[in-house]
Amino acid sequence: TQLLEQSPQFLSIQEGENLTVYCNSSSVFSSLQWYRQEPGEGPVLLVTVVTGGEVKKLKRLTFQFGDARKDSSLHITAAQPGDTGLYLCAGERDAGNMLTFGGGTRLMVKP
Amino acid sequence: GAVVSQHPSRVICKSGTSVKIECRSLDFQATTMFWYRQFPKQSLMLMATSNEGSKATYEQGVEKDKFLINHASLTLSTLTVTSAHPEDSSFYICSALGTGGDIQYFGAGTRLSVL
Prior knowledge:
A: mainly beta, B: mainly beta, seven-stranded mixed β-sheet, four-stranded antiparallel β-sheet, 0% helix
C-alpha cells in the first residue's frame, strides 16, 4: 500500500475539458509537491504547498492542500494537448527532506 | 534555476557488467542527493539518500552492495550498479537538495538496459 494514493491512475480527455487529480494519505505532510514528468525525462517541479488549506494557481492549473495537510488536488482548466504527461504528487515529512511519491496520474489530452 | 546533470542519459550493457551513473549539481553545492528508480509506467521509488562525506542511507529492500553510492564532493554523487542483471533494467533518477534545503532538483534520468 502506497503512503500517497493518487487517483485516477489514467485519464484520457478531449482538449478543452477540465480535470482534477487527487492525492490522498492518512499521514500528515509538512509540504506537498506536484511534478510533471515526460517520457524519458526527470520530473519537473510545478508547485510546492506547505500550509493547510493553501491554494496556488499556475496559469490553468490550481493546486490545493487539504486543511489537515493529508491530501491535495490538482485541477486543470481547459486542458490542452501540451498538458499530456505523468503528474506526480510527492509529500515531505518532517525529517530528512525525503520525498514519498504517489503512484502518478498519466494524463492524455487529445486534440 | 538550479540545474542537475545526469550522465549518461542511456546505457546498454551486458549482464554481469557494472555501470556507473553520475549526478552533478551544476550551479550549487548539494550535501544531500537522492537516487530513485522508476519502472515503466510506475512512480519513483527512493533507493537511497546520498550524503557528502559519509555513507549513503539505503531504503529497505535495496542492496547496498549491489548499488554502490559515492558522494565524494559537494557537486557529484555516483551510483554504480554492480554485476547488472536484466531485472536491474530501469530508469534511474537522481535529485539534489538545493541550498535552501527545501527543494529537490531532479536530473533528467538514466535509462539502463541490461541484456
